[in-house]
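Hey, resending since the last one bounced:
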Amino acid sequence: MNDQTPPPSIVLSAEQWQSFLSTLYERGDKLDLREEGGVYHPRKEAVDAYVFSGHAEALLSSEVDGDVWGTLEDIEETAATEEEAWQKIVAFYLERGCVLMEIEPEEADEPADQWLISEPLARRLGLLPAE
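The structure tokens again:
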């Protein structure tokens, strides 16, 4: 992240990220908490970063191809570098009520993964406090 990208609203370590993913289930096109209000939803399919990516607005990840250039084209922007492209994508989605989530790398010399998700999804999954 550089000086032009705003600080993330959510920061998780690599371990917290894996733990978080294990608390999720996907049914149809809805991602939700596996256990909520005393109700436990059995694991039918593990939710990993790839499954989670289907619910993100955009991402920049070493684990999952987020297609930065395709996303930039979708928002009808252009950029000279991938870094500039990601900055424009972040600005676009933050203006539309999304939150920036950062996953700290396991190795210090690796870049952090960044995910843009809707605020309602972040709240429903317990990443942000309920309103």
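Strands lie at 10-12, 24-27, 30-33, 35-36, 39-40, 58-60, 98-103, 113-118.

Sorry for the duplicate.
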